[in-house]
Amino acid sequence: MNDARSLPPAQRVFTSPSATFELVLSSPSQGQTAQAELFAVAAGARRPLWRQALPHEQGPRTAVVADSGEVVLLDEWINVPSRHALLLLDPQGRRRAHYNFDELVGILQLPRKTVAQHAVQGAWLAGEPRLTTDGRLLLLPAGGRTLSLQLADGRLTAY
Questions:
Q1: For residues 73 and 128, what is the distance between their CA atoms, to the nearest angstrom?
Q2: What is the pLDDT of residues 5-60, one digit of tens each?
Q3: Phi, psi angles (nearest 5°) of residue 13
Q4: Mind listing the pLDDT tens digit for each residue in 97-115?
Q5: How far is residue 112 from each of residues 42, 64, 100, 143, 159, measured CA to CA in Å?
Q6: What CA–CA distance (Å, rounded) separates 27 from 35?
Q7: Contact 88, 46 (CB under 8 A)
Q8: What structural domains and CATH numbers belong to the chain?
């Protein structure tokens, strides 16, 4: 599928499993950059925690929000081997880890072609990202293997 020309929706919302955090991604308008804003949610009220411009050209393809407030931004909206394939932000919006497409391929220890052939979302994701039940890891299917991201320190391994 070639979606290099499609634009993301103007706004997308991602919620943590317990609905205590909500991430709002806003697509760039003419001459601006994509934005992300994280909210804490309690008793029906939203409290902003941070807001920042994103390095992604049109914004990330998808995002995952953990119950601990970490945010993982995955890939680019457009199908390209991204310089921002995986970006982990801590609950204050600080960058905890950043991996480009080639770094992911290196961790997977697979040829680029194999990773791309398995991709169903963007250039490398082979399925839906999934948080472990304890919320400590994000599991990412890629290239017939699984990448495991430790949310506490950003360490990425493959199995």
A1: 13
A2: 577 888 999 999 999 999 999 987 766 789 999 999 999 899 999 999 999 878 89
A3: -120, 130
A4: 999 999 999 999 999 999 9
A5: 43, 24, 13, 9, 17
A6: 7
A7: no
A8: 11-158 (2.130.10.10)
